[in-house]
User: Fold these one by one.
Assistant:
Number 1:
Amino acid sequence: MRRFSLMMALLAGVSFSLPTLAAEAMPEAIATEAGASIADLKEMYVRPAEGDIPFPDDNKYTDAKYELGKMLFFDPRLSRSQVTSCATCHNPSFSWSDALPKGVGDHHNELGRRDPSLLNLAWDEKFFWDGRADSLEQQALGPIASEVEMNLPHDVMVVRLKGITGYAPYFAGAFPGEKDPVTKDNVAKAIATFERKIVSGDAPFDKWVRGEETAMDESAKRGFVLFNTKGNCAACHSSWRFSDSSFHDIGVGDDDIGRGKLVPGDPLMMHAFKTVGLRNIAERGPYMHNGSVSTLEAVIDHYNDRFAQRESLSPAIQKLNLTVGEKKDLVAFLKALSSKDESVTLPVLPR
Ligand code: HEC
Ligand code: HEC
């Protein structure tokens, strides 16, 4: 919320009153016209120092927990059929999602929503598209027991894990001093520890923020300014993760009321979904909670004038009148948010 108001203060009165900006205009000039310099804008997107990941007090980081969590994340024996792991749907090869419009569960059944990426969730506050889980620990147990996802009741999971004797030393190492460490809560803690280390790497945008002028081309630089001014994207996609950790109805047309189900008294939460972070966004379409928007070009068209008009629509969503050139610039900027991340090695699983 604080970041949001800083943004608003910097850009006060700018977002919709600006004249159509010439695509060839210099970003520096545009930003000055908008009342905030490029340097001010860059300041808001500086990424945390490498390795500076927040871990909660009741689940501090240890290498042993991480190693166990990684095994559990990739272990299909956490599903009834023994073929579906967390990574089936949150696949590191697809930026921790699966490139499908909607998730596919343990019986090859289609789920109601798209599999979200797991990038940069250590900094998030609410989980799932509608924010119904308050921590990664709480979230992790959901899909295991969910009949439509992994379909393995927690008590059955614990019995199964105890039967895999090779796991015993890993649980003992991750939770030292506990007499009976193979519990569902420890499974959740280990998986959450692994997930917090899933962080997107340095992108051309970050290099540019640090002063490497040639790291991003001119089109992407213009796109960055549009993102913060005429496009009004930064009203919600704020901070280095490009998310305000909040919920909005952006007019994706379907019957899913999202957060409206959890907070029925708040009319603005009808059809509201979590603001998705935009890191590595070019690597993980199709987009939105229902996978209904297939390309980044189509995302920009959506925000320009294709959103569904309804009572709950966020006041920050208004027709943008973007020119063809401006649309291209926004897409070029979004593409500059992708990092070339190191390959993830698969763990050898205990027997
Ligand atoms: C069958 C596919 C599937 C499997 C298996 C699966 N997930 Fe998910 N996951 C989803 C879908 C779909 C959502 C979004 C559901 C919603 O928001 O209603 C989701 C949401 C999440 C989120 C929330 C992300 C966010 O941005 O808030 C996390 C974290 C997550 N899953 C972790 C896991 C872990 C850990 C496992 C294994 C224990 C797992 N998932 C197994 C499909 C799957
Ligand atoms: C009112 C807040 C708000 C504004 C303004 C906004 N967004 Fe979003 N954005 C969201 C929310 C919320 C979602 C998820 C919506 C859903 O799935 O139904 C989203 C989703 C997206 C996605 C898809 C992410 C994914 O993984 O599916 C992209 C890309 C995106 N926004 C880019 C932009 C751009 C570019 C702009 C400016 C032209 C913009 N957004 C303006 C809140 C906003």
Note: The mean pLDDT is 91.
Number 2:
Amino acid sequence: MNKRLLFAGLAFALGAGFAQSAMSQVKPEILVKQRQAAMTLQGKYFGPLAGMAQGKVPYNADTVAMNAAFLDALSRMPWDGFAPASKDATVKTAALPAIWSEAAKFKEAEENFQRAVQDLVKVSRGGDEAAQKAAIGAVGKTCGGCHQNFREKQQ
Ligand code: HEC
């Protein structure tokens, strides 16, 4: 077999492997774990920014830029974890049934959040502290807005 064919075959085998794992059913419990993990990391990287916006944490432009970039990626991650199949999960979850019974409203909350994160990303490298703090506040509102309607109240 010549080398080029060998590589083509290898690439095909790898590609097929990925496609197969993407299509196979992920267990509901895993979906719940993964979406909670993405949320936990959002909390990790958003927390310090919220602290800065509230004047509780010293402002740091580098942290704003870095955490905004992380949130850019993280804000895209949790949503496929709310697939209808995850309703059957037997693990502890704070997700409310409204996520599925009011799917359009949940989707809207998701989009409002992602838009707010994109606005933050845009100002995160400008060095304008006031604009960044305003954008951070706007993101925080969209986290809270969704939790208000779709997450069980935390005791
Ligand atoms: C569109 C809705 C929505 C948005 C926007 C959203 N969340 Fe959540 N969040 C949820 C839901 C629903 C849960 C409960 C998930 C579960 O327990 O299965 C959750 C859970 C969490 C948790 C607990 C995770 C765990 O381990 O149980 C944290 C922390 C969190 N969110 C932080 C955030 C932060 C910070 C933001 C904004 C930067 C945010 N969320 C934006 C819906 C949202």
Note: The radius of gyration is 20 Å.
